[in-house]
Amino acid sequence: MDWPHDPDGEEGSEGMRQYGHAVLAKKIDEEEDFPLSAADYVEEYGDHPIRIDYETVVSVEEIFEGVETEEFGDFVEFHQELGRAMRENGYWFYEGADRFVGGSA
Predict the structure, then answer these.
(1) Do 76 and 83 touch, CB atoms closer than 8 A?
(2) What span, in angstroms and rounded, lies between the C-alpha atoms of 58 and 51?
(3) 55-73: buried (b, 16+ CB within 10 Å) or exposed (e) per residue?
(4) Are the C-beta atoms of 28 and 46 separated by less than 8 Å?
(5) What region does 102 belong to: left with phi over 0, alpha with psi -120 to 50, or beta?
(6) What is the DSSP letter of 3?
(7) Whole-angstrom distance, CA of residue 102 vs CA of residue 25
(8) What is the 3-class SS of 46-101, one letter each residue?
(9) Torsions phi, psi for 36 (to 5 deg)
(10) Which Pfam family would be a valid example here (predicted)?
């Protein structure tokens, strides 16, 4: 896929390699962007690359294929749903993630 920018370049990761959830969250403003429509988020950022691990890059749109929520009321709701969707669809590779979510998604 041709990406609109390099996921490891300045625009993609602010000078340091960042992965998955952190990159998704940095695209929104906690104070200004809520409530946030999932469809609007995908429309704006769907073709942006998200590095999942050291060898895997997928689009925002691919990650959002597993998102069930149509609108997020706040930043916490956004984080929780994206985390659930990423875990359930094989886009979450952090060791010990189950410990922090109580073993359920």
Answers:
(1) no
(2) 7
(3) eebbbbeebbebbebeebe
(4) no
(5) left
(6) -
(7) 22
(8) CCCEEEEECCEEEEHHHHHCCCCCCEECCHHHHHHHHHHHHHHCCCCCCCCHHHHC
(9) -120, 125
(10) DUF5785
Amino acid identity, position 47: D
Q: Extract the tokens encoding 91.
A: 């886009």
Structure tokens given for 28? 């929104």
> Given this model, what pLDDT does residue 55 score?
80
Compute the distance between CA of residue 55 and CA of residue 93 in angstroms, rounded to an integer. 12
Band (1; pLDDT cuts 50, 70, 90) = low
The one-letter amino acid code at 25 reads A
SS3 of residue 43 by DSSP: helix
Digit-coded pLDDT (tens) for 78-90: 989 998 998 899 8
Return the residue matching tokens 């050291």. Answer: 54
Question: How many Cα atoms sit within 13 Å of 59 on the Cβ side?
Answer: 15
Structure tokens given for 82: 């994206």
